[in-house]
Each structure stands twice: as C-alpha cells, then as structure tokens.
Amino acid sequence: MKKRVLELFILVIFSFCAQTNAQKLSPEKIKVQLEGYKNDIRGPYKIIQWFCKDGTIRGAKDPCLDTVGGIQHATYKDAVVALGKSNHIYLGQILAYTDKSDFWDDSKNHSRLKQYQLGKYLAHIDDGWVNRKGQYYRGAIQIEDEEQWGIDFYKWLLSKDEILEKNYFLVLQSLKDIPHKGDDDLSQRMRAESKVLSDQYGRFMDLRVKIHSNPEPSDIEKTMAFVNTNASKLTAAQSKKFQALIQTMQQFHQPVDVKGIAVKAKRLSITSPVKKNIQNYINNNAIGIEHNAFVSSSAELLLSIRKQITKEKSASQRMLLLDIANQLQGIVFKTSLQWQPETLKEQLEKVYALTMASAGSGSIELWEWGQVQPILNPASSDKITLGQLNQKLQTARSVVEWSAAMVKATYQDVVNEYSTFEPKAYSFIDDRIRSSIALQLGKAVGDLGVFIAKESAISNSVFSLSNQSSFRGLNPGYAFGELVVISENLDAVEVSSSKIYIFERAPSDLKPVAGIATVNEGNLVSHVQLLARNLGIPNAALSDENLNDLKAFNGKEVFYAVSNRGTVILKEASKMTADEKALFTKKVRNEEKILVPVKNLELKQSKIVNLREVDAKDSGKLCGPKAANLGQLKAMFPDKVIEGFVIPFGIFRAHMDQPMSGYNKSYWNFLNDTFEAAASKRKQGISEKEVENYQLRQLEILRAAIKTMPLQADFLKEIETSFQTIFGKPLGSVPVFLRSDTNMEDLKDFTGAGLNLTIFNAVIKEKILQGIRDVWASPYSERSFKWRQTYLLNPENVFPSILVIPSVDVDYSGVLITKGIVSGNDSDLTIAFSRGAGGAVDGQAAESYTIKADGSYQLIAPARESYHNTLPLTGGTGRKIATFEKPILNAKNIEDIITLSTSIRKTLAKKTKSDYKGAYDVELGFKNNELWLFQIRPFVENKHALGSAYLQSITPSINLNQEIALSTKL
C-alpha cells in the first residue's frame, strides 16, 4: 500500500512539473507514463464529472438540473493534459470533451484526428492499450454522447467544400473510426482480433497471415478446426476471443447485398445529385447479379459519389453519401474476392474496375485517375499487343503503389511519432492498406503480371515468393552479400558496402552499399537513384507485401541482379550458377577506378569570381562543374539564371596552408600525411578495414579543425564586397545557398551527385561564414570519403569550390533528364518535381513524367509527400503542409521544360565546344510559373552494368508487337 501511495505521489509531482514547465518529453519518459496508465484502473483519466450546458461542472453523483441539461464523462489526468501541451500527443481522447476545430487540428496536419484513429487501433490489438484497465471505468465515456459529437463534428466539417476536395481520403477513413451512428468496419475488426490472437498464441500466425492477406469464407472453417485441434492448450480467455473472431468472420463473409445502402438511400433528399444513380444501382443489384457486374457497378457509383459530393450542399446529406461510399468500398473489397476471371479480357476488366474504385475511395486523386483511365480502359478489339499489355501492367502496378503511398503520406507522421514510444503503432499503416481496395487491386495486378510474364518470357526469380511481378528493376547491376531487410522508415541507418539492403525508403544520405531495393523508391532522379545508376548498383522497387516476405531471408548470403529490362533475380548464394560465381571470383583491376584530374587546377586564383565570368571551360580548373556550368547557362539563358559568385579552389587551398591548431603542420600537410600513412600501412599488410578506420579517424580530426578554421582578412573583405556589388545588398541581408562544388563531380564515369554539403537559405552573416567552413569540411565526411575511396584512385586530391547564389523560394522544383529513363529512349525526357525547394533531389516521392518526342507525356508517379520545404527571407527552412488534389506541374510548365531541353540539346555542346553527346541532368524550379535554372551536369550511367554480358544474358528479348487474343484463358 505504501509503495502504491509513493508511486502516485511521484506521478503527481511528475505531472505537475510536466504541466508547469511544458518541456517536450522524451520517448522513454512517455513509455513510462503509458505503462502507468495501462495498470491504472482509471487509465489516462482522473475523475468523472457532469458538464452542464450553463457552463457549470458538477460531481459524478450530482447531475445537471433537468432544466439545464448536460453530459457526463471523465476528465484527463494532469500529466495527460501536459503531454498534449508539450508534445502534441493526445491519449484516450474523449470526443465529447474536445473542441471540433482542435480535433481537426488543421495546422498540425490533422494530427489529433489521426491520433484518435491510431489510438482506437492500438486499443483493438493491445487489449485496450492505455485503457487496459481503464476501459472498465464506468461512465468515463458515454457512447451516445460520442455519437452525437461525431454527428455534430461532421456537420461542421463537411459544410466546407475545400475539406472534401483536399482531404477526401482522410475524411472517408475517419468515418470508419469516429462514432456517428454509421456502420462498423468488420474487416478492421477481423484483422485486429486475429492479430491479438496470433500475438498471444503463435501457432495461429499462419492463419492470421491468410486472414490479413487474402480473406476467404473458407477461413472460418480453418479457424474452427484450429480451435478444435488446440482446445486443450487454449486458456478460457483465448477460447472466448476465438469465438468472437469466428463470429466477426461469419458477419464479414455473409452474402453481400445492397439492403444497407437502400436504407440510407431513403434518407437522401430528392434533390441529391446522385440519388438517381444510387437508386438505379440498388434496383440493378437487388438479386442474382454476377460478381463482375456487381464490382463494376459498385466502383462506378463510388466514383460518381466522389465526383458529385460537393454539388450536394447539405452537410448531413454529405455525411450520408460518405457512409454509402464506405459501404460500397466494403462491397467491392468482398465481392472482388469472388470474381475469378477466366480470360485475359476479364482480368483487364477487373483491374480497371478496381482502379476506378481506388479513385472513388480517395486512394488516388481524380486527376491521377484521368491520367490512367485511358490506358487501363479495356480494349474494344479482340486482340492486344504485348507492348500495350505491358503498358497496362506497368500503369496498374503504379496505381497500387500510389494507393499504398496515399496511406503512408496521410498517416506516416503520426505513426513515426508514436512508434518512438509504442512500437505496435508501426503496423497501423499496413492494417489500413490491407483494409483498402489496394489489397485486391494488388492481387489482380499480380495475376495479370503472371500471365504477361508467361507470354513474354519475362519472369522475376526472387526466392520462392508469391506475387513476384511486383518487383521491377530500376538500375541494372549485380551484387553478392548479406541481405538486410529494414522495414522501419529510418533516416540514419548504418550500412555496409558489402551488404544488400531492402528498405521501406532509402535514407537520403545513403553510404555505399552493394545493392538496394525500396518500397518507396522516392523518384528516379534523386541523388540516391543517380548514384546507384552511375555506379552500377542493382536497384529495384517492390511492394510492402514483398518486403514483409523477404524478412524470412534477412541475414542470408544472397545473389542479386537486375537486368537491363528490369527483371530481378534474388536467391540464396548456395543456388548461384557457375557463371554467377565467376562474376565475383575475378580480381577487380585497379584500372577500373577513376583518376581525378589535378594537373589543370588553377590554385593561384585566390579572388572571388562573379558567376557571369565563368563558363564550362573553367570546370575542374577554377571551380567545380556546378558553378562552371551554371555560369554557362547564365550566358545562354540570362533571364533564367540568378546572379551569383564563386569561391574558387585557390581560396580553399590558401586556407589549407594555414597552420592547424594543435599540430605542428598545416591542414594540407595533415591531409597528405594521412594518406601517406594509409599507403604505408597497406604495404605493411594491415587489413583494408583497419586502414579505412584509421583514415576516417584522421579525417574526422581534420573535418572538425576546418570547421573552426580562421578565415583570412582579405577573403572576409571580398565576401562583404561581393554581396554588395553582385546582390545589391550587404552581407547578412540576403538569404543564399552555399553549394559545394568539387573537382571530383561530373567526371566521365563518376557523378558524385549529392555527396557533399549544401547550406540551405543562410542569411545571418555568422551562419554564412560558418557555412563556408562547413562546406569546405564536407568532402572529408565518412559518407563522401567512402564513395570516393571505392571509386577514385586519388581520393585525397579533392578540392571544393563554393557556388553562392541567392535563394529562390520556388513553388516547386525538380530535375529534368534529357532522356527517357523508364523508356530508355534518348529522344524522350524524364522529369520529377516536388512542391517547394529541393524535395525531388533529396529523394521525396516526386511527381514524375516521361515526355515523348511528340510532346505528349505520361505520368510515372504523383507526389506523395505531406510536407514540403519553404525558404523564408529570415533564413533556414520552413515546412508547409501539402495536399494532392491537383498536379504540381501545369501544361505551361511542361511546355517550358520541353523548350528548355530542346535548346540545351542543340546548343550546349556547341557553346562549350564539347564532344559530349549524352544526356543532361538539370535542376530547375518554378516561381509564379516562371522557370529558374539552378544546375546542369552530364547524366552519367554505368556502361559496365548496361553492357555486362551476364546482364545481357538474363535480359529476355521481347516482341512487343506480338498480338494476344483477349479471349485467351488465364
């Protein structure tokens, strides 16, 4: 008893401190709080009170006067309230206790609403979660009050057209969780109940996986048989939970009908814009309709509701239509399981119907549906070419990825926050994806992929996994090493150059690896993707399901290859062929590394240079290619390139000749002594790993020293003068980018994209001056050094220059590659754009297109990032919430990009007197629809990977003109 009193006293003191100081709590401290609530008979609640309509508050046994009225519910513990203030984390939310606007939480990307949904999920799968004992705290929550609040909330929320236009998916999802006298989501309940049982009784895991991935009526009998077989081993509580699961499964798998929709349809007003459509749907689907027609008509109505809902002006009627939409999703989800196509034509019809339903449910946006609908629309002819069929497959596969990405973009921020103190939160996103039409669409697309693979002799070979058609190669290459599967979205993963990594999303600062595959590939032209392409690192995209399946092979030695046409091979090392083993027994010749040219360096240039005074010929001499090429662009497109100046190699070198504090030598001598000592250690037979560790320790010392290096007086004066004369304002009043620009970038066979530092939007004088030191130090970071050490013969001869340009707070920015990366066609263009500044380059899920030579274009992927960077005049970066209802690029933007690319192709090589005939990688942005150019460089691909005899041998030859009858049996 004394111990309990002491614990409560400590909790009260802790609560008081947290509330008064409002300091953000660490995940560890939040974990401690959660454990306390789980074991507290009141959970996160303090006391129950009456809240009267006249504003008075009464005790639990002293109700409001009948003439006044009111509601009864619990109040939160002080520590719970404090956690909301300090961390914006809200536990055990009582809706009747919450302001509607606070709950919608618009400024925090609707965090409180999402937390409510996540909290309900955790309660389902973890025996009440923070309310493990508090769920029996009588009177804490009154369901009738919660339902009335839900109705009032949606009347308030749905009166705004903008909400439905921008947040359709979130609103539709929320209706499944917020009480409002709507329908229960049986599929969510079924998955939650089966997860709880598999966690408690591991032998049920196989059946649980089946129920989650491919629910069928036969699962009921299998579960009953499982219970009978294991009856003697189950506790009474487990047996009770199994019976509840069986009951839920029986309800879920009941024959689908439209009675529930008919009941709601009677409540629709005669002026409802879709009432006639709904009534026709009810009449046509009343009895005996085929599964294919039922799914198709349900998908059509689902899409019609989404398109027409803002024409309905009554918020109550809108809520009713959204409830009908959720019922239609359930019908499509369940009925599509029973639709088993027999011919290719029927399979294409199923894919089309499920894609339409995805658009109707908000998993993809309406403009995205407009892009894919003409491609997926089933052909009216009797035959189809293999090329057309492949295009349909790639498009449908993309829709599956976009649908999953919509769930992640909507909920990932909240899930990431909660996962730091509650690991079970991470499975929420998977649960939402599996409850969506994307699960059934993915299966239908997988079946189509299997058919096409047989017809075209293209087949992935990834262990013995199911649904292998979800794998698609991005960059050709081959690798051998340990397989590491990382399912969490980690931004700072320690990686090894000898291992192969499967990521949910690759870190933007990825260090050298042997091979990679990602669920969220980001985009085709991010720095990570360009490095992989340049260096011949095999790189593929896969589905969430594939990633989960690959966990079984985590830690195994594997062989991994991606062919030139994107087929993927991943198998255990023991199954490698003799030819595959030979790829790694050949000694890698030193000559295959690249030599950084240094003989042309002009290190005597110790003055800042105006951007207008440099051009392409200065690359590798005066400065790096960023500045040289941007200066060339400034001459060619003076109105499209901002002003700027260059801090050349010579200024860096002069500073490196200064004495290094604490050492009896200069910075430059310290650097060279490090590499000389490393060479000596190699001669002594010391292992390469030990030599590398020595170099990294020494370079860390050097890097730290450069960051505190004194800047010479003459240089400081020049900086001041350059700001005033070139930018027209004094240093400290103009926000600028400081871009590292080394002589190791854009070599013939090595791009170096994104390896060194860029300082974003610095404005304060001290930050700019410190930024110069930081940029000079960045080539000696572990990541930059490891990439150079692997691919360069003389990694010590790296000289950084710095390009200084004013910040442009662009509306959206991205990358142009003057060739078709997906198509492989040199006459095509590839573009990828993100909202705000820098997102596409850093690997965000960007809006990407292939633009054909005739000016037509095809959407590769839409943007799926909830936040984007802004560049405020005060410096630093801001964050802005993004929605996806409109494309980033408009038709004029694309026309401007085409015009620019034509000019670059025709004139750049001529202007620079270069014999380069390859593609270019261009960074650009738009501000108020005006195009700005920020960088141009050669687009470097790995010729060894593209031309490898082995990769050619696993690349099938496909006759894309081969015709296939749509009546062909699957």
TrEMBL record:
InterPro entries: ATP_grasp_subdomain_1, PEP_Utilizing_Enz, PPDK_AMP/ATP-bd. It comes from the Bacteria. Residues 622-943 form the Pyruvate phosphate dikinase AMP/ATP-binding domain. Residues 1-18 form the signal peptide. The keyword Signal applies. Keywords: Signal. Pfam families: PPDK_N. This is PEP/pyruvate-binding domain-containing protein. It comes from Flavivirga amylovorans.
